[in-house]
Inverse folding.
């Protein structure tokens, strides 16, 4: 006679398969010498402008490619495609990029072998924080018009990032934003965060940003050599 | 917003544990913490909407666990308050030890007696 009850203790992370895929991709890109950078921010903080400035700075020196994610349109890709190999990923309705979309983007780029692969995530500080895209470096952007109290409101985005770029610093005279305040708030959540400031539109802070990227590339890819 | 697709994932993983038997799932327990990126109540609602026939008899239990961490420098373990991840003792950075994952902790199956013809 059956009808037995059995409790199986599983203790399985629901997102383990996603994390495994991301790890594989991270390893694959690392071995090829490509640093994968995932850019997170609210809409309009300046991710695309950062990438325009980065591409201009790297021209002739280093190779980069871009995957840019949005719900709709290819507006960002249009801005970037003359500056670097770029593919637009449209999610349709999904509020974040995921690994499968990234893979599709890499195919569309014919799996480029570059120094830097930038993934411009969908403008959103919530959901992208929970999705590993196989990046080596996660960077969060906050612009001076967004307020310096944001880190505490989006703890996962800041906890899981390695750098915070404060953008639109040219507007500091006009807004009640304190770089010290946001730095303090952010470092509480992620003490290892590097904080950078820039006005990419004005070309300020671009060199520091690119030097940071290169330092990270050397450091983070060393383990894959 | 993602709780539906996460629940679909959970139900798929739970279904795999049935291993093609006619076992009925009577309980699914999950563990979630503050940094998991999942809202427990929305997960429960998603379960109610998606359980379907196979899982309709199952209890879905969400256990909320605290966010805890251990210092990388001095090994001090503590519960993180207000998302302050600096070690209470030495100020060093920490490793999260619980609360940043959604885990399927256990699944209870009831194997049904075969129908006698």
């Amino acid at each position: 006679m059956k009808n037995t009850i059995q409790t199986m203790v599983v203790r399985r992370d629901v997102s383990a398969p996603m994390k495994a895929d991301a790890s594989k991709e991270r390893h694959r890109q690392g071995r090829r010498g490509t640093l994968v950078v995932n850019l997170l921010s609210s809409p309009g903080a300046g991710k695309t402008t950062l990438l325009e400035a980065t591409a201009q700075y790297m021209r002739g020196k280093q190779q980069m490619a871009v995957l840019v994610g949005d719900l709709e349109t290819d507006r960002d890709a249009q801005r970037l495609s003359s500056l670097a190999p770029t593919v637009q990923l449209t999610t349709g309705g999904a509020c974040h990029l995921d690994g499968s979309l990234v893979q599709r983007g890499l195919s569309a780029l014919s799996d480029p072998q570059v120094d830097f692969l930038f993934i411009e995530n969908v403008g959103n500080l919530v959901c992208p924080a929970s999705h590993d895209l196989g990046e080596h470096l996660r960077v969060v952007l906050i612009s001076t018009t967004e307020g310096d109290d944001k880190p505490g409101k989006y703890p996962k985005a800041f906890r899981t990032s390695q750098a915070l770029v404060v953008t639109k610093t040219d507007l500091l005279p006009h807004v009640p934003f304190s770089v010290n305040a946001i730095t303090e708030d952010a470092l509480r959540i992620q003490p290892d965060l590097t904080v950078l400031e820039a006005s990419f539109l004005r070309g300020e802070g671009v060199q520091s940003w690119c030097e940071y990227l290169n330092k990270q590339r050397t450091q983070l890819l060393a383990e894959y050599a | 917003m993602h709780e539906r697709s996460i629940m679909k994932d959970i139900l798929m993983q739970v279904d795999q544990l049935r291993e093609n038997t006619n076992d009925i799932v009577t309980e699914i327990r999950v563990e979630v913490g503050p940094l998991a990126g999942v809202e427990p109540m929305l997960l429960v609602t998603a379960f109610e909407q998606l359980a379907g026939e196979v899982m309709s008899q199952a209890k879905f239990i969400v256990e909320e666990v605290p966010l805890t961490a251990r210092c990388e420098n001095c090994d001090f373990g503590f519960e993180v308050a207000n998302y302050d991840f600096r070690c209470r003792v030495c100020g060093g950075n920490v490793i999260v030890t619980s609360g940043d994952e959604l885990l399927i902790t256990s699944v209870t199956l009831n194997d049904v007696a075969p129908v006698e013809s």
About this structure: The longest helix of chain B spans residues 3-17. Strands of chain B lie at 24-32, 59-64, 68-71, 77-79, 94-98, 102-110. The CA atoms of residues 27 and 108 of chain B lie 5 Å apart. The first strand of chain B starts at residue 24 and ends at 32.
